[in-house]
Amino acid sequence: MKSNAAKMLYNYWNEIRGARIAPRRFEIEPTSIAGILPETFILQYQNPQSVDFRLSGTLVCDLFAREFRGQSIYSMWHDEDRGVLQDGIVSIVDNGSILLVEIDGVTKSGREISLEMIMMPLIHGGDNISRIIGTISASAYDPNVVTRLDPITSLAVRKSSQVWPDGKPHKMLPKSVLASSLPPKIITAQNRRFRVFEGGLSQDAAPKRH
User: Fold this and answer.
1) Alpha helices, DSSP H, located in 18-100
2) What is the structure's pLDDT at 76?
3) Residues with Cβ within 8 Å of residue 126, at least 6 apart in sequence
């Protein structure tokens, strides 16, 4: 993890989850992560094909000059690449993994920008993982460079990795191990380059903020 937002959210998420596969959605206190809320989003997972934004921070919207609430996470990706993201999300929901993605972006004016996205599971409704919390942020965010006036219009994944907070999939760990504190471990990594998003604010759409 490189971005401060990803590190802060992971540390907070890991602290409140304890030995569980994930914390509950209602345990997330916005005031505890106030400094990174603009870079934070929450997804609603219904099934592998239906994963929608419930919340998206103001900086997330500003980076793309786009309102994400209610839209599918897959709307950011080309059809041929959605399966990669879907596989990562299924692993989050089924196995308690974390998805970490390093991204190369290009703004409307042609500026290049590096981003990092992290996604982690949340329990909501019974004992099921049906929410995903994450951040997407620029490595060196300059509000004078990356704004709604010069939004990101295309992305390419530099590296996509699964991170296991307890060293391996949660369901494979004995209770005695879960009671201890293990460092996160990257088990698998994919190095791919592909287009994941094109667009920006449409000509007739008015900017909205959360």
Assistant:
1) 58-64, 82-95
2) 78
3) none
